[in-house]
Amino acid sequence: MTTENGHTSHWINRTSFRLLVALPLGLVTAIGLFCFMSWMVGSVKTGISDDQAPMAFDMVMQEQDSQSQRRLRKLPEPPEVPESPQELVQPQSLSTPVTSTPLSQVEASQAVLDTNVALSDFGVAVNMPTINTAIGNDIGQQQQAMPLYRAEPAYPARLLKRRVEGFVVMSFTISEQGKPENIEVVQAEPTKAFVRPAVQALRNWKYQPKIEGGKAVKQGGQQVKIEFKISQ
Q1: Which of 64, 134, 176, 206 could form an SS bridge with 225, CB 3.0 to 4.6 Å?
Q2: Is the pLDDT of residue 199 over 80?
Q3: Which GO cellular component terms are attached (predicted)?
């Protein structure tokens, strides 16, 4: 019994000693932790206050010019307008001396075209035909219009080789557009082989339309004589 009481008192003494040692250490540790945490909290607040310092901005607005600057640009030069073509130019090798020949007692201009050409079929050089165009009056003495453009007829090759000359007299009407129409053959000598090239050429002629009351009208009673001649 005495032994058990001794053991109990010894255990109580050891426990009391441990408590006496642990309590001061725990107290010191708690105080240290409290101080450390207080220091940490204070430093964090200081950092936050420093970071949140008010920021000042100097805002300068640059006012843009509302009025746009105008660029001075030179206008491109207008393209040169080609001059309106006049009468079709005849080949340079053709010469057109103007002569006059009476027809129905009226003088008119006569265009003569001369060129030289070599006919290899015959083996000799001959002159190209002279095409004489004479404009005259009919019985009613209608005013004869002068053509603005005159196409020359082609000389029939067969008659050229045979050196046959001739002429064709035609009557026609000038339309509102200035073109010959209603072409009629009045006379063809010595053969009708000259009629076709003469009529085809006359269809391509151009006249100034007749104006009456400010309006273009037909002009009838026109007559023309186309001669086919070979230069000597």
Answers
A1: 134
A2: yes
A3: outer membrane-bounded periplasmic space; plasma membrane
